[in-house]
Amino acid sequence: MKVIKFYADWCGPCKSYAPIFDKVINETKLDFTNVNIDKDISGLAAKYKIKSIPATVFLKDDGTFTKEVGLLSESQLKQLIK
């Protein structure tokens, strides 16, 4: 599984979510990417239709994905990774 976190520097909830995301991701050793929507030249935000942030996309090995919008708690993020 790969995880993509979409954020912006000016976003208050994104700033609150960052340490939660970093802690859980570092515990799991998953492949992850952080995408600043203001600097997204790759087009990932458009590809996954990100309209609100923070947003987290979970890419499964079979090519499917799920998307969660909003600040997730540590337990919510861990549950979604399972």
Task: Please report which band the strand proportion falls in: under 5%, 5-15%, 15-25%, 25-35%, 35-45% or over 45%.
Answer: 25-35%
Number of H/I helices? 3
Instruction: Name the shape in a single word.
Output: globular
Structural class: alpha+beta
Indicate the percent of residues in helices. 25-40%
The biggest sheet amounts to: 4 strands, mixed
Mean pLDDT: 94
The side-by-side strand order for the widest beta sheet comes to 2-1-3-4
CATH domain fold name: Glutaredoxin
Describe this structure in words.
With 82 residues, the chain is an alpha+beta fold. It has one domain: Glutaredoxin (3-Layer(aba) Sandwich). Helices cover 35% and strands 27% of the residues. It has three helices and four strands, in the order βαβαββα. Strands 2-1-3-4 form a four-stranded mixed sheet, with helices on one face. The longest helix is centred in the first third of the chain and has 17 residues, at 12-28. The radius of gyration is 12 Å and the shape is globular.
